[in-house]
Amino acid sequence: MIAVWFSAGAASAAALKLTLDRFPGEEVRAINQPIAEEHPDNRRFLRDVGEWCGIEIEEYTASKWPSASCVDVWEKRKAMSFVAGAPCTQELKKRARQEWEATHKPDHHVLGFTADERKRHERFVLTERDNVIPVLIDANMTKGDCAHMIQAAGIRLPAIYGHGFPNANCIGCVKATSPTYWNLVRREFPEVFSARAEQSRRLGARLVRVKNERQFLDELDPSAKGAPLWTMPPCGLFCEEWSATK
């Protein structure tokens, strides 16, 4: 049985389609871990992709976190981001995956690592699971290729892309440290920016890095810029800090 972990982004959607095409007759399960802080249009995209692929995309939430909320995780853990990644990934993505695995025991995994994310795939195989089928890497598909594939199928990409974000992560992803990213959040979703600024200040989390120095979000200059947003990795079962500030 092959478990395809669907994150509601273009890459994981393309990975699901390629897996079904590449392994006809095999049992393929598609699993999504919904997160409360994602854009609501991600649910529409999930349904559209399921219809396109002819498969039910299952939703599974970690039993410890029925709210599936990053905000709740940060409050409980009294932290929003660590050097090794964000606690929301550990609690809402990895824990859910491990619980699902314990019950269903898949033989192989498929994730949305693209050809431009070979190193992330290699780290996941080294530190998490070695039974991963890199369908997108094998097909030499980049993020752009995945988006074009989805659009060619007549499926509208998740609305979050239309706001200028490079992936379908939660709005206000705390692994991001780029001022470019956070000022985009401030401009497109001011209520989310305000909520992150309040919680991060209260928990002592300096989420943004400007000129190699950490700042609270409420200290961020609205005109500050960092690297282009296309360098930001998607949030999935492998999480690391995104600190592009050049």
Characteristic terms for this protein:
disordered C terminus; 246 residues; alpha/beta; single chain; 9% strand; 2 domains; Rossmann fold
Q: Any idea of the CATH class of the largest domain?
A: Alpha Beta
User: What is the H level of CATH, i.e. the homologous superfamily of the largest domain?
Assistant: HUPs
What CATH calls the topology of the largest domain is Rossmann fold
Cα-atom radius of gyration: 18 Å
Strand numbers in spatial order across the main sheet = 3-2-1-4
Number of strands: 6
Low-confidence stretches: 238-246
Plain-language structure description:
The protein has 246 residues and is of the alpha/beta class. The chain folds into two domains: 2-158, Rossmann fold; 162-231, no CATH class. Helix content is 42%, strand content 9%. It is built from ten helices and six strands. A four-stranded parallel sheet has the order 3-2-1-4. Strands 5-6 form a two-stranded antiparallel ribbon. A hairpin with a 2-residue loop joins strand 5 and strand 6 (213-215).
Tell me briefly what this model is:
By secondary structure, the protein is α/β, with parallel strands linked by helices. 42% of the residues lie in helices and 9% in strands.
